[in-house]
Amino acid sequence: ADNMSVERIFDELGHFKRFQACLYFAAVFQAIACGIHYLASVFLVETPNFVCGAPANITDVLYGNVSGTALEDVLPSFNDAYSYLAVKTSTGDQWELGRCQSALRVNPTDFLSYEFDGDKTTIVCEQKFVFDHSQVIQSIVTDWNLVCDEEWLAQLCQPTFMIGVMIGALVFGDIADRVGRVKILMVTSSCQFVLGVLVAFSPNYYWFLAIRFVLAMVSSGYLVVVFVYVTEFTGTKVRTWTSMHVHAAFAVGIMVVSLIGYLVRTWWIYQIVLSLVTSPFLFFCWKFPETPFYLMAKGRLREAQALLERIASTNGLECRLREAEEKEGEEGQAKAAEKKLSILDLFGSWRMAGRTIIVWAIWFIGSLGYYVFSLGSVNLGGNQYLNLFLAGAVEIPSYLVGSYAMDRVGRKKTCAPGLILAGVACMLMIVVPSDIHWLVTLLSMIGKFSIAIAFGLIYLYTCELYPTIIRSLAVGSGSMMCRVGSVVAPYCVYLADYWIHLPQLIVGILAFIFGVLTLMLPETLGQPLTTSLEEAQNLGVNAKKKSSPKDSKDPENGLEMAQQRL
């Protein structure tokens, strides 16, 4: 049956009334779990201060001008100012303990001094590390000694997770079109709970990676399908708003991570608590109905009718699927006319190729910037838990501003300034002296705010830039670029080890360039959705002629646009 009739039904049933609201908030509640798992690794792989090869029976410890009688006294203040701790044992031996190697002083004086000019024998330590437990009681780094030669394993944790996200989005997006939205939502959300708790009981690092990889697949599967689900249950009038605010639930997840990371400093307890935050969802997810669009697309009209009656009674109206039957004939003919399209059709002409490259670039920088700001917020200096909390909190107003601006100012005029502002904020972060913590954090939050606007908007903008026949392909390939950005992002954050501002420099330059390129895209606000490649190509060419008041106010156009949006 035709989507059109369902869209009309929303006009009768209400675009977002009691039934849809209950479903929406329930489905979005579980999306918080996606935000949680995507960023949980920030505190799982936290590396506290450590030294290696500590001898037995230590009596004195010196670090610069800090002294103590045990390693625990001095470890918290071990930073990069000096490279080792000097220790003395009860037998009179003196050692210099570094992070990855230690040295025994040959013939030391009786008095322990920090500097020593005599000979030393250097020893490379094997797995004998002493960690500072004042801040982090247990992380996977302290449990499995992921430091020095094995530091790269700890850094592998987030990129492998993101590759899981990439594969999950492809797999589950495809299955949801065949099996139905609800089954996938139920499977992926149950797996999120089970796997999330299993991660906490990983016997070793490789199990930890493997379980988190599958967890990433189901989390991204849930996120992809929940977007489709809420879109198919809400009418056109609120669709911008509902799709934007699934992202806001993700941001709440980030805030939850920072809060629980602050309260629980033992990684496996932290992981279990995080996994159970959204457990109430399990009590009502099995009551979820299948979406009317899916039921009608599969020809299950009787079930669709029953569902619409349920919606109607909940919303306090009654409704019939009367137009649906008449329309079925036309739909068949339209389907026959469509030829099979491939990704090459996104590059069908110079105009389309240019448009596709710019759109892909925005998807990429949106995701890269988003994760560089989120993951990197813990390295800003100051209180890392507060920084991560702010990085999540700042997103929520950005979606409110974004959904308001894109309907008032236009898609292009919201997206381009967002990217350019993010680029400027990055550049300023490099210039500002890093000991002014509040200013650095403020700039980082401005960057996150403006990149989140562009990132939340590109989803819908892509839908409007391409015709119906290749629309889902355009969004699909765009989100692939976005996943590439999220796989690259953790590595980009680790570049800070070479030069503290390298991640900001990369994101800043790219965001600025892509922001300027965005100005070359056509504006789609108030245009009906295009159906053919010709129409899509002509977007923005003859916009000047079109904008006679008579056309833009045509109600039929609005409805057609509504129908095409899916």
From TrEMBL:
Region entry Disordered, spans: 540-566
Keyword terms, alphabetized: Membrane, Transmembrane, Transmembrane helix
Any Gene Ontology CC annotation: membrane
Subcellular location: Membrane
UniProt-listed InterPro entries: MFS_dom, MFS_sugar_transport-like, MFS_trans_sf, Sugar_transporter_CS
Membrane protein topology class: Multi-pass membrane protein
Gene Ontology MF, one: transmembrane transporter activity
TM spans (from-to): 21-40, 152-172, 184-201, 207-230, 242-262, 268-286, 357-373, 385-402, 414-432, 438-461, 473-496, 502-521
Primary location group: membrane
Span of domain Major facilitator superfamily (MFS) profile: 106-526
The protein's name in its UniProt record: Solute carrier family 22 member 16
Organism of derivation: Gadus morhua (Atlantic cod)
Lineage start: Eukaryota, Metazoa, Chordata, Craniata, Vertebrata
Gene that this polypeptide is encoded by: slc22a16
